[in-house]
Amino acid sequence: MSLSLAARFARRELRGGLRGFRILLACLALGVAAIAAVGTVRSGIEAGLTREGAALLGGDAEMDFTYRFATEEERAWMAEVAEEVSEIVDFRSMAVVGEGDTAERGLTQIKAIDSAYPLIGTVVLTPDIPLDQALAGQDGLPGAVMERVLIDRLGLSIGDSFRLGAQAFRLSAALTREPDSAAGGFALGPRTIVTTPSLETSQLLAPGTLFSTKYRLDLPPDADLAALAAEARSRFEDTGLRWTDARNGAPGVSEFVERLGAFLILVGLSGLAVGGVGVSSAVRAYLAGKTNVIATLRTLGATRAVIFQTYFLQIGALSLAGITIGVALGGALPLLFAPLIEARLPIPAAFAIYPAPLAEAALYGLLTAFLFTLWPLARAEEIKPATLFRDALHSARLLPASRYLAATVLALGLLLALAGWFSDTWWLTLWTAGGICGALLLLTAAALLIRHLSRRGAHLARGMPRARWALAAISGPREGATSVVLSLGLGLSVLAAVGQIDGNLRGAITGTLPDVAPSYFFVDIQKDQMEGFTQRLANDPAVERVQSAPMLRGIITRINGQPAREVAGDHWVLQGDRGVTYSEALAETTRLTAGEWWPPDYAGPPLISFAAEEAAEMGLKIGDEMTVNILGRDITGTIASFREVDFSTAGIGFILAMNPGALEGAPHSFISTVYADEHAEAQILRDLAGDYPNITAVRVRDAIDRVAEVLSGLTAAMSYGATVTLLTGFLVLIGAAAAGTNARVYEAAVLKTLGASRRSIFISFALRSALLGLCAGIVALVAGIACGWAVSHFIMDTGFSVMWSSAGVIILGGYVATLAAGLAFAWGPINARPAHVLRARE
């Protein structure tokens, strides 16, 4: 009976229109739209990756081997199951134009192909000629195609020649599109494509050279990918095989999109939390205006349940409307901007209406609306029949009844559970939730402190009427100091945290490394070249030091006889191949943390020294056995020691080192890092590349710039999400300013009656807005710095320093936003006629 009566009351209340609820609708719509749009874009990319999986991969399946070609047994199995097989050799090298000191060199990622490439898709060239024709060459030189950025960097024109190693090539065309580029992963240099036979005399594929081979399989239409994957892994996984198929043609891209999408949705939840503050403020302001109505209903016999249900149904209906608008916007915007998004994406996407992300966004919106409206609704039911004055809602107790507290905790737990389940990143979800809750608590405490200090300051500001009026207003309940600090402060906190994290990560990559990092990495140095290589550098006074080590690559396949992933989980060390070295003596700069180094001239079973930090994460201990597959051969050794490995210096650092007798008989090359004065780097490169054309040089500063470029895209995506949060906060700020208009009208009328000028009243209004904005910016900065420090210290494991330029922008933004919103709603109260206002209050 009470519910039907409440429904009738709610319908009558809704006839009054949306006055007072526009901010509620806008906050919910914006937050839900952001989450729905991110989810829709992610689903579109995932659908595109699934649909075009074979094209992205370049075949129905791929078998990948580290620094070796497939064995006869492996080739026979591929020929048995596939209709056609294409072999690709992938490695880095130097493209050289010219001779001697005038030669130009550029790092390039080489793809050596056979006649079957590409199995799926088409290579697009400029000029538009067939790939086999471009690679056939002319004038006795094999042909090559190259990305335009490298052509321009080397000053080449179509028809010019250049060298890869000891082999000259004729540039036949510019590479415009590579159908399987997304499967290639991160590359430090632009792409060059040649045929594998043309590299026979290049000296680039000597034993021990760092390269990988990929065998693309064109399978029969009825092939069972899951069964073939299981068979391939059971037969060849211990030989270092990595299997990929069309079900996930670009696993690196797919994983990145999934994680970035999950992170952006969590940032979107921060925006919803800001919107929730606005929802709570709007509901509270609305119910404050309904005090007389509620008290009258109580006088006429309405129970607390009827009061609660009436406004719960009314606000619930409006919340559903806001969520519906948000879902519609979030689903429509990606479709509307699909051509622009697809043009910026290097991978295919299939944009459509996907119910799952829209339902996810709607659930988040419902739970957020419930969480932030429950408390003001619960306080409204406590208004007594005899309470017929304006501030009854403000005099209600702070905490609602226990049943509402229990419902709030349950809703919050459900929201976190859904966020963790949908994003599949529980730790990130908990970190985000903890950060939001911590920021809300800090901002709430700061708002209360601001009100307290303003109350004290108002008494001390005698003789300064404008400042006193401003401080007195801030300390009062009607000015909405809490809403302003919470909404704008939380939005600024998210933006400040992103700015601090980005600045510190960039500093870790580009700021501290140049002081300690080497000038060059030289790889693929053959053993018989080491003496001449070392001698050239030893005689150069500009070279500070040189570090060299044997270099092999291996895949950890077993730990104590069990599959490595079953023992250590999905640790990053087990994801792909890792650098392996050997050494007779412990380096002077290396410190053992446990165990002992093998003695000189040790000739027993293989022993392993493992990186201490990674060993602790994987649960390894001294005496454990580890099997490493190197060049298709299993080597099982015993862990004899753990040692510190510092990767932050960009020097040589190996996760796994073994005694010389275990590895020195295997084909391998050497890696070297050269620390030299910057002015001498070019000459060092010219001399070494001229004497040893097979050696590849990676300039560390160029690598840092490439990583920073990738980081820029990630930071931009995070900033867009944070900007939505800030925009929501600004909407809440406008709502708070609008909600306090009536109070400011009355205040201005009283001040005018007492003789205050319009100019003085305007300055007072501006001063209170500026003070609130400044306080919100400062508190947000503290919260953002704390969050940035926590992420840098606990997640990224980097140093931390405050980015003061970003900090200044945050404080200025809070100041300007609050001042603008306050002044926008100041003209009405200032221009109101005191007689009309005071007569209405009689």
The biggest beta sheet is recorded as: 6 strands, mixed, barrel
What would you call the structural class? alpha+beta
**Domain unit count:** 4
Report the sheet-strand fraction: 15-25%
Give the tally of β-strands.
21
Helix content estimate? 40-55%
Domain ABC3 transporter permease C-terminal: 266-380, 722-829
Pfam families: FtsX
Protein name: Drug:proton antiporter
InterPro entries: ABC3_permease_C (IPR003838), Membrane_comp_ABC_pdt (IPR038766)
Give me the secondary-structure topology.
Elements: H1 2-14, H2 22-51, H3 53-57, E1 61-66, H4 72-81, E2 84-97, E3 104-113, E4 124-126, H5 131-136, E5 143-147, H6 148-154, E6 161-164, E7 167-177, E8 191-195, E9 212-218, H7 225-236, E10 242-245, H8 251-289, H9 291-299, H10 304-336, H11 338-344, H12 355-380, H13 402-423, H14 426-460, H15 465-475, H16 481-511, H17 513-516, E11 520-525, H18 530-538, E12 543-559, E13 562-563, H19 564-568, E14 578-582, E15 592-595, E16 607-611, H20 612-618, E17 625-630, E18 633-643, E19 656-658, H21 660-663, E20 669-676, H22 681-691, E21 696-699, H23 700-739, H24 741-753, H25 758-795, H26 804-824, H27 827-831, H28 834-840
Parallel strand pairs: 3-8, 5-7, 14-19, 16-18
Antiparallel strand pairs: 1-9, 1-10, 2-3, 2-6, 2-9, 4-7, 5-8, 6-7, 11-20, 11-21, 12-13, 12-14, 12-17, 12-20, 15-18, 16-19, 17-18
Helix pairs in contact: 1-10, 2-8, 2-10, 2-12, 2-23, 8-12, 8-14, 8-16, 8-23, 10-12, 12-13, 13-14, 14-15, 14-16, 14-25, 15-25, 16-23, 16-25, 16-26, 23-26, 24-28, 25-26
